Amino acid sequence: MTDHDSTGENTGDNQDDAPRPKRIFRGSRVARIPPDAAQRQGHVTRLALDAFGNKDAAIAYLNTESESLGGRPIALATTTADGLRSVEQDLAVIRSATSSGSNSA
Q1: Quick check: pTM over 0.85?
Q2: Domain for residue 14, yes or no?
Q3: How far apart are CA 40 and CA 91, in angstroms?
Q4: 52 within a domain of the structure (yes/no)
Q5: Could you list the residue range(s) of the whole structural domain that residue 82 is in?
Q6: Is residue 70 assigned to a domain?
Q7: How far, in Å, CA of 74 to CA of 67, rounded?
Q8: DSSP string spanning the chain?
Q9: Using CB atoms within 10 A of its CB, is residue 91 exposed (0-12), middle (13-18) or buried (19+)?
Q10: Number of domains in the chain
């Protein structure tokens, strides 16, 4: 049996004519981070964007090992609240230096 529109044309919409393929859903292979870590990640990313005023510089900062912090800022900030505070303080110093440097021009 086929479906027809008001003009009598075959619309091909009859779902019974062809077997449906089976859908197989597989779980993501990417580990999800806990909600609190995701929140810290978003927060520190916004702070870095604000401090640097440039997406590329902020991403580079977050993903580059920092001797003064003892690791990559993004990893430190997402792992613990103390790590987040350390990165926040570092970004505050950077922002202060960046904004005072732009005012002297």
Answers
A1: no
A2: no
A3: 14
A4: yes
A5: 36-103
A6: yes
A7: 14
A8: ---B-TTS-B----TTSSPPPPP-----SSPPPPHHHHHHHHHHHHHHHHHHSSHHHHHHHHHS-BTTTTB-HHHHHHH-HHHHHHHHHHHHHHHHHHHHHHHT-
A9: buried
A10: 1
CA 82 – CA 98 distance, rounded (Å): 24
**Cβ–Cβ contacts within 10 Å for residue 80, how many?**
13
According to the 3-state scheme, what is the secondary structure of 54-82?
CHHHHHHHHHCCECCCCECHHHHHHHCHH
Q: How far apart are CA 45 and CA 39, in angstroms?
A: 10
Cβ contact 51:91 at 8 Å: yes
Query: What is the C-alpha to C-alpha distance for residues 72 and 74, in angstroms, rounded to an integer?
Result: 6
Domain membership of residue 40 (yes or no) is yes
Kindly report, residue by residue over 15-72, the tens digit of the pLDDT. Answer: 566 777 888 777 777 788 899 999 999 999 999 999 999 999 999 999 999 999 999 9
Shortest CA distance to 71 belongs to which of 86, 56, 55? 86
